[in-house]
Amino acid sequence: MKVISVVGARPNFMKIAPLIQEMRQFSDIEHLLVHSGQHYDDRLSASFFGDLGLPKPDIQLQVGSGTHAWQTAEIMKRLEPVLIENKPDLLIVVGDVNSTMAASITAAKLLVPIAHIEAGLRSFDPTMPEEINRKVTDVLADFLFATEESAVQNLLKEGIPSDRIFLVGNVMIDSLLRYRSMARQSGVLADLGLWGEHGKPKPYGVLTLHRPSNVDDPSALGLILEAVSEVAMKVPIVFPVHPRTHERMKSFGYTHLLDSSRAKSADSGLISTNPLGYLDFLCLMDHARLVLTDSGGIQEETTVLGVPCLTLRENTERPVTLHEGTNQLIGLNPEKLVQASLKVLEGDFPKGRRPRLWDGHAAQRIVKILLDSWPARATKRSPSMA
Known about the structure:
The protein is an alpha/beta fold. It is built from 16 helices and 13 strands. It folds into 2 domains: 2-170 and 358-385, Glycogen Phosphorylase B (Rossmann fold), CATH 3.40.50.2000; 179-345, 3-Layer(aba) Sandwich (Rossmann fold). The protein has helices at residues 10-23, 46-51, 68-86, 98-109, 129-140, 149-157, 171-183, 188-191, 212-215, 218-231, 243-252, 278-286, 296-305, 320-323, 334-345, 362-377; strands at residues 2-7, 30-35, 59-60, 90-94, 114-117, 143-146, 165-167, 205-207, 237-240, 270-273, 290-293, 309-311, 327-329. The radius of gyration is 21 Å and the shape is globular.
């Protein structure tokens, strides 16, 4: 079986890593890794490849940033000749970024079967670009691998045949469980002055922001940062700033809220850092008293780590993190954000449990299904692929 996987953005790397590691166990799988270049900054790409032991991409499309339409079209233009030349038996895509949808459309028109990892997640918010990417990809996919039961039900309600849907667990959690002990060796807490006496970390929180609805609107971004700054008067809040978020903060005049030169002995403040590598960030999350985020993946990771998570959105496509995990939806109400944060710091938060099949073996299930199903699922190539 000749397989091409397409990745493009930071969350994709954590999801594809365990699949590549598992496919390496089978000599009858030939795998090529294509990086679209959607995330091209080394702080969001190269460091993750190193931390996760990912091979250097076989093919770099080097697309870069742009509008959604431009980026999607450019990925399709550059990927099409790659698929025609290499004639894959299967395309694997992960998550819900533009690279995922663009690769799926390109493969579907060449009659290349598609496997979508993390299928069926729905926020039911049509203003989210990721929601469109998910729905288009799921319509085109031949293998739909779901992380939670709600995703399976979403797909069935949308008319996807049940024999194409597989509940397999969460490959992002495969990576987390594989690297958690290694991440604990990180020196990031000491570097940030968060390592206390008696060999234990000081209390602190973590903030991440990257969604356009939060960072492109000066009012929304200002409300979030002001509220988080109030929480940071109680405990330090570490804020690894996404490059795009930093640009918005600079243009809106909010950089004065950051305190990257905080004294090592301080017990409060909003501490900005550059984006962190996978192991450093996992270490930071693992020891945090509180995580504030608009990221879907972090909702899942904190659920498994048992760390309280306050999601700065009105909805989530990962409801299992609310029903079984440590996640709470806060929205953009500053007063609610502060009150919920203080309650968490006082120990009042849902303790949660690990969702079913989030056990570190999702990649094994996926590869087994692909190998077992392949003869029955193979699709005739188009004349242009011959």
